[in-house]
Amino acid sequence: MPKQVDHPIILGIVGDSASGKTTLAAGVAQILGEDRCTVMCTDDYHAFDRSERAKLGLSALDPRANYVDILEQHLRLLRDGHAILKPLYDHARGTLERPVYLQPKDFVIAEGLLGYTTRTMRDCYDVKIYLDPIEDLRRKWKRRRDTTQRGYTSGEVEESLEKRKKDAPQFIHPQRTFADIVIRFSRPEGANGSDIHLDVRHLLRPTLPHPDFSPLFDGSNHADLRLELSRDSDGKPVDVLEIKGDISDSRAEKIENLLWDLIPEAGHLRDQVGRIDVSNGAPMSHPLALTQLLVGYHAVKASMGERAY
Amino acid sequence: MPKQVDHPIILGIVGDSASGKTTLAAGVAQILGEDRCTVMCTDDYHAFDRSERAKLGLSALDPRANYVDILEQHLRLLRDGHAILKPLYDHARGTLERPVYLQPKDFVIAEGLLGYTTRTMRDCYDVKIYLDPIEDLRRKWKRRRDTTQRGYTSGEVEESLEKRKKDAPQFIHPQRTFADIVIRFSRPEGANGSDIHLDVRHLLRPTLPHPDFSPLFDGSNHADLRLELSRDSDGKPVDVLEIKGDISDSRAEKIENLLWDLIPEAGHLRDQVGRIDVSNGAPMSHPLALTQLLVGYHAVKASMGERAY
C-alpha cells in the first residue's frame, strides 16, 4: 500500500502488567504485515536490574526507575526514521543485557507500562491505545503468564500483584487519559470463566478521526453491538463502542467490511485477518479480531496522512 | 571559567591501538577539571563481541564491525547537550555489556580507534587530535598494556599486532588527515629505551587558530624547540612544532607561561598542571605535559567561542 507520510507511523500500546499489550501488538503487526512493522517494548528502558530495584526500594513501574529521557529520545529518533541502539531488559532473569540495534520500518509498535508519561513521549505517537481490562481478567492473565512464561511461583505473582496495587494507580493509570482509544475487555455476565467470548468496550476519544459506524446501526442499537455518546470517568465526551462476545458472525463481518472498505489502500492485507490464530489454537473471538482491525485501521489511516489533531 | 558557547565542547582523540589516547584524555581532563569533563570511548560501539567477530572474520577496527550510525547519532546528541545511553564493550573479556547513562558535561573527550571515519562524525568535534607515535614505541606500549591490563599473553599480543598490520592502514590511518593536530611521540636518537624523555612533534593544521609561538623564538630556532613551516605527507601546508625530550626547565616554563597567558579565563586551572602524576610515579616529561596543555588550551579556546573554521 502506498504511504503518504515520510516518517514511520508510531503506534503506542500502554497498559498495566498483563493487560494484553503483547497480544494486541502481535495481532496488529500481523494485520499491517510483520515485515513492515518494528515492535518494541518500552519496558526495556529500566535503569536498574531486579536486584538493584530491590535494594533501592523502587518499583519497575516508577518513572524514576526508568530512563524516561532516553525513551523520549528514542521515540523521537524512530519517528524521524533513525535507527536506535535499544537497551534490553531480560524479563525472565531480571537483568539488563547488551543493547539491540533497531531500525524503524513503516510502522513502529511501542508497547509497555510507560509510554505516555511525558508530553514529549506523547507527541511522538500517531495513535495511542490504552488497555484497561477489568481487574479480575488482568489478574488471571498475569497469573497464567508469569507462572508459565516468566518462571515465577504462584506465591511470587500474588506478592507482585499486591505490591503493585499502589504503583499502578500512581504511575500506570494516569496515562489512560492521554489515549485516543481505551480498550476494555470484560467477561460477559454469567460467563463460565472461559476467555473465548469476552466482551469489549472501546472508548473512542475525539482525538482521532474515527470511522463512521452509522451504517451498521440502521437507526437503532443492537444488543450485540452498541455505539453511544458518553462521558468518560474524567468527564470528557467520548463515543463508546461495545462489541459483545456472542456477536453473530454476520454482524461481525459487516463491521469488518465497513472498516476494510474505508481503507481500500490496504485491501491486499485483508487476507491476513483470516489467518490469525491465537497461540493456544482456539479460534479468535470477534471482539478481539475487530479490536485488532480497528487499531490497524487507524495505523493505516495515519500512514495515509489522515490525523485529526 | 565562564563558558561562551551553549553546547558542550567535543574533543576528539583518535589513533591506533595503544597510541596513548587514554593517557592524553586523562591528562587533558585533569587540566580542564575532571568534574567538568565527560570522557567516553568510541570503541564501545562495537556491534559484535570478540567471539562473533572471530566467526565473522571481522576486525574490531573495521567500521562494519561498529555501529557507526549510532556513534554519529550519539556524538551529535552529546554536542547538542543531550544525555545518551552509551553501549559498553568490556575490553578485558571481549563482551558487550549493559549500556551506561552518560550526560555531557562542559567538555566531552571522545577517544577511540574510530572517530573521524565519516563526515557526520567529524562535524561534531570542536578539536580533533590524532595520535601517531612512531611504530616501535606504539608496539612497546601495546605489549606492556595488553599483557598487564587486558590479560593477553605476549604471544597473543604479537598475533594481534600482526593481524592489525593490514587493518590499521585501511581503517585507522586514513583518519589522520582530518585532525587539527597530529601528535607524534618518538625516542630521541641514542635513547636507552626509557620513555621519560620522549621527543614530541606537533603537526599543526591551519584548521584551528593556533597560538602565536613567535615570542618563544626571538628570531631563531633552538635545538630543543623548533617551529617550522612544512608540508604534511599529504601535501597540505602545516606548521610543525618540535619539543625535544631534553628541553630545559626554563624554556618549558616559557611555553607554559605563553599558553596560560593566552587563556587568562582558565588561570585558576593552572595549579592542576603541577599536580599531574604519571601512574608509575615518574615525573612527567616536559613534552607530554606541554602536549596536554596545548590540547587543553584549544578546548578552552573553543569553549570561549573561538574557532577558525
UniProtKB/TrEMBL annotation, chains A, B:
It is an enzyme of class 2 (transferase). Keywords: Kinase, Transferase. Residues 10-184 form the Phosphoribulokinase/uridine kinase domain. The keyword Ribosomal protein does not apply. The keyword Kinase applies. Its EC number is 2.7.1.19. It comes from the Bacteria. GO terms for molecular function: ATP binding; phosphoribulokinase activity. It comes from Methyloligella halotolerans. It holds the Pfam family PRK. This is Phosphoribulokinase.
